[in-house]
Each structure stands twice: as structure tokens, then as C-alpha cells.
Write a structure and sequence with these properties.
Blueprint lengths: L1 H20 L5 H8 L3 H7 L3 H26 L2 H26 L7 H24 L9 H12 L7 H16 L4
């Protein structure tokens, strides 16, 4: 129980540290800020690369898990919209830790591949539910929505990009509705 809490705390502090200081963030500082010793950090994450990957995978896992949670409590199109808004937040986190991910041996592509599958599965399920409820056009390709959201990350540099991205989510939802 404590081990899991320590791991989660380390991941949260590491995400903030990598976002602030990049891949060279002090691992000792991360351990200290998480309230654990360096030995605990290295038991969970034997290398800096392991910690960077774990931070990224944790964010992806949270986003993928949100699909089921949102689907259970919201109507299909609202669950899709809510997930897309969470994806905007994921993009922000990814942008912050991207420089750290780029330091990994072999680059970030091997890390992104497994993530791509999880995220595509999540949006496929959400779009399928929205199509079945007739809230979304039958010819909508889930990957098209995902591509549009990923496109937002290419402009994620201005101070108001998140607000703009949230508006774009609403535009995508409206544009995905049946035309009849």
C-alpha cells in the first residue's frame, strides 16, 4: 500500500520536475519532494529513462481509463466530448515532458507506439457509442477525430492555446453530428 502510494507520488513529482527542468531534473530532488529516499526512487525506477517512460505511460493510462469512466456516467456524445477535453490536457502534459522523452535511447517513437494503441482503442469505443446513439454521423472515422486533436499539439505554444483547443473540441463535436 505504501509502496504504491510512494510510486504514485514519485510519478507526480517527476512529471512536474521534468516539465519544469527537462530530462536533467535532479532525481534526488524528485525523491526529496516526493517525501521518499533516493533508494525508494531507484527501487521503483532503476534508471532516469525508466522514470521518464513511467511518467508518460501513467498519463496515457489515465486517459485510456477515462474512456470507461466517462462512458459509465455520461451520454455517449458527452462522454466523447469530455474525453476529447481530457486529451487536450494530455497534449499539454506531453508537450511539457516531450523534451525528456526525446532523450530516451531510440527516441520517443517506441514509447509512443503502445500509447497510440491505447488511445485509439479509447476513441474507437467512444465514437462507436456515439454513432450507435445517433449523436454522431455514421461515416465518422474515430482516427480522424484523434488526428484533429493531435493537430492541436502542433500549435500548443501560445499562452491561450488550451482555450482555443477546447473551442476546437466543440467545433469537432458539432461538425460530427448527423446532417439530417
Amino acid at each position: 500500500m505504501d509502496a504504491q502510494r510512494n510510486r504514485e507520488r514519485l510519478l507526480e513529482v517527476a512529471k512536474e520536475s521534468f516539465a519544469r527542468s527537462g530530462a536533467d531534473a535532479s532525481l534526488e530532488d524528485i525523491a526529496r519532494q516526493a517525501g521518499v529516499g533516493a533508494g525508494t526512487l531507484y527501487r521503483h525506477f532503476p534508471t532516469r529513462e525508466a522514470l521518464i517512460e513511467a511518467v508518460y505511460h501513467t498519463e496515457v493510462d489515465k486517459l485510456a481509463a477515462a474512456e470507461g469512466e466517462l462512458s459509465a456516467k455520461l451520454p455517449p456524445v458527452e462522454a466523447l466530448r469530455a474525453w476529447m477535453l481530457l486529451f487536450v490536457d494530455y497534449i499539454a502534459t506531453k508537450q511539457l515532458i516531450a523534451p525528456a522523452l526525446n532523450t530516451l535511447v531510440g527516441g520517443p517513437s517506441k514509447v509512443y507506439e503502445a500509447s497510440r494503441i491505447k488511445l485509439r482503442t479509447a476513441i474507437d469505443r467512444l465514437v462507436k457509442r456515439a454513432i450507435e446513439s445517433r449523436d454522431i454521423r455514421e461515416d465518422l472515422e474515430p482516427f480522424d477525430l484523434l488526428r484533429a486533436l493531435i493537430g492541436v499539439s502542433n500549435v500548443a505554444s501560445g499562452p491561450d492555446w488550451r482555450q482555443s483547443a477546447r473551442r476546437l473540441v466543440d467545433i469537432l463535436i458539432v461538425g460530427s453530428r448527423p446532417t439530417e
